[in-house]
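Exercise 7. Predict the joint structure of the components listed below.
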Amino acid sequence: MEEKILEMLADLCGDNIVKENCDINMVEADLMDSLDWTELLVWVEEEFGAIMSPSEYTKEEMETPNKVIEQVKKKLAEQGLA
Amino acid sequence: MILDRIKESADDAPLQTAVHSLQGEITYGELWDRSDSLAAYLDGNIGNHLPVIVYGHKDLLMIIAFLACAKSGRAYCPVDTSMSGERIADIVNTVGEAAVIITADEYDEKVWPENARLIDKKQTEKICAAGGTISESEWLGGDDVFYIIFTSGSTGRPKGVQITNGNLSAFAEWSSDLGGPRAEKRHGTYINQAPFSFDLSVMDIYTSLTNCCRLWCVEKSLQSDHEALLRYIKQGCPDYWVSTPSFANLCLADREFNDELMPDMKAFYFCGETLNKDTAARLRERFPRAAVVNTYGPTESTCAVTGTVITAEMLKDPRPLPIGTVKPGTGIAICNNEIIISGDSLSPGYLNDPQKTQAAFFTAEGGERSYHTGDAGHFDGDMLYYEGRIDMQIKYHGYRIELSDIESNLMALDGVSEAAVVPAFREDRISNIAAFIVSGKYQDVFEDRQKIRNGLRDRLPGYMVPKIIKFTDAFPMTGNGKIDRKALQKIIQEVD
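Solution:
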């Protein structure tokens, strides 16, 4: 799952740095815009079935690839999908 | 008309070299006599007056055959050896029961349909040497089609653009004085880069032949061997140069490409692609005594209809380089941002394709036959500026984006020599914008990719900043010597 998420992030960012450095701050680096975030959440639902709505999260909670993975895992556990 | 001007060259300087290629050279006298002989053969042996296909690469027989066709009252249609069998079949089918003059040593017989009448190289050489003559009364008239060049239209069947004797004469009349008076050009040497099936070559072939110059043809095989390429160019000691900007960039990559290699250079002429400032500036630096001339025009209006010498002021101006002032005899109007062309070098239309002719050519309000270029542009005074293909505009996240606009902003960044921008697709929708960059300064590391993106963010709205940044040593090129955007797009899709 981690790999899939990183692959998707790299695709959205257009840069493989997110796979090499999972602690990079994607917000500060301007790698993700608001459309990309929406697209990510829609994709997570399609791919893993976890429903994550944009309003649940602050930007800080998802700003690095590792944090995104952590939040997806948390959500999957909450919804009993993990 | 064209043949009259070339005849003057042949009468004035029969012993001067007219065309040089890797396999040898011919004088104006030989060019004239051999094309007479081949014309006599066509006149006596080909029952129809359909266009004649001339197949080969940079063989001397190509130019002989072009003139022979004109002298026998036929149009010629150049087909380069790099063309695919499928494309050749399309061309033959459009032309009809064509005679085909083969000037290449090798050719694939299976490529040619059964109804094509092939005259192979050996036969052609024999015919040229036979000493036949042809009466001037057989020559093409002013309204007759001189050549047909098939454009590489991105979709569907290629279109055969017909250019008349009058169109070509009007063009050569203008190009003779472009970037320097014709009197100075006499007996000079022109570098030819473009294959003859690409209408950029019309600029060097006919400006050279009608001004008694020497045409120095650069074969495609040389493009992959830098050392041999530079040696060959040096040997020609050229005065004038006609190529795509991409080909000049390829040469500029070598430090030796300077005015020690070519001390006589007087002018570089560019057409067929956008000339960027970096290329122009580097040429001026390496060749301080030579002019850099930018020109513009679709195949449908005979090679080029605007031109200008690039000045230091233009290089300093924040805008992209202008494409020039309009040739006398040509009219250019801007309608809904599109460049519309009319005038004496405008093609009568596409060969045997009234539908596509009607779609692109129309009668303007004033009654002038006009052509939709599909190019966006604007005037500043009498100077025309090119804004890219209208179909290079994409819709991304709901915004209308001009890819060439991103390219010119990328090239304005310090350290970026060349840039090409293509859309990246996920399934059938544009998911990202990708930029390919040639740079001596940057490396393919995250920090440098960020520098490019951040540099662009200062100049463009965020949605126009390409997410995918790729550094490359050189761009892939098409057979015509232009940036191969389809190949770039493939690279992006494969990475995905």
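Discussion. The mean pLDDT of chain B is 93.
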